[in-house]
Amino acid sequence: MKDFLKVTKALSDPNRVKILKMLQHKVMCVCEIQVALGIAQPTASKHLKILEEAGMVNSQRDCQWVNYYPADGQDSPYAATLLGNLRHWLEDDEDVRQLIEKIPTIQREEIMCKREAACQQS
């Protein structure tokens, strides 16, 4: 029951569901997710940690980036089932649709350049 509750609790937050929907369309790093949702970086990291612990997402380091993507569900049959269904759910939700449309305009390199420029100006 513990694994089941982890998965259902992970999906109990709207931002975590939005993160999963975005990751179905693009592998993303924390800074891209942060910008897309308009939340603080620590908040985005916390959401990703909860999703990862529930077996809903995986991550892989690529130089300076940590890329997040949907898990394949091998670690949890509950995660596998819900991830499979979530692929078809909420596609017509207005918030989800706006996020999906926004994804191509969010580029991690530009986010980092803006942050570096802001730091240099301070």
UniProtKB/TrEMBL annotation:
<dbReference type="InterPro" id="IPR036388">
    <property type="entry name" value="WH-like_DNA-bd_sf"/>
</dbReference>
<keyword id="KW-0238">DNA-binding</keyword>
<keyword id="KW-0804">Transcription</keyword>
<protein>
    <submittedName>
        <fullName>Transcriptional regulator, ArsR family</fullName>
    </submittedName>
</protein>
<feature type="domain" description="HTH arsR-type">
    <location>
        <begin position="1"/>
        <end position="90"/>
    </location>
</feature>
<dbReference type="InterPro" id="IPR001845">
    <property type="entry name" value="HTH_ArsR_DNA-bd_dom"/>
</dbReference>
<dbReference type="InterPro" id="IPR036390">
    <property type="entry name" value="WH_DNA-bd_sf"/>
</dbReference>
<dbReference type="GO" id="GO:0003700">
    <property type="term" value="F:DNA-binding transcription factor activity"/>
</dbReference>
<dbReference type="InterPro" id="IPR011991">
    <property type="entry name" value="ArsR-like_HTH"/>
</dbReference>
<dbReference type="InterPro" id="IPR051011">
    <property type="entry name" value="Metal_resp_trans_reg"/>
</dbReference>
<dbReference type="GO" id="GO:0003677">
    <property type="term" value="F:DNA binding"/>
</dbReference>
<keyword id="KW-0805">Transcription regulation</keyword>
<dbReference type="Pfam" id="PF01022">
    <property type="entry name" value="HTH_5"/>
</dbReference>
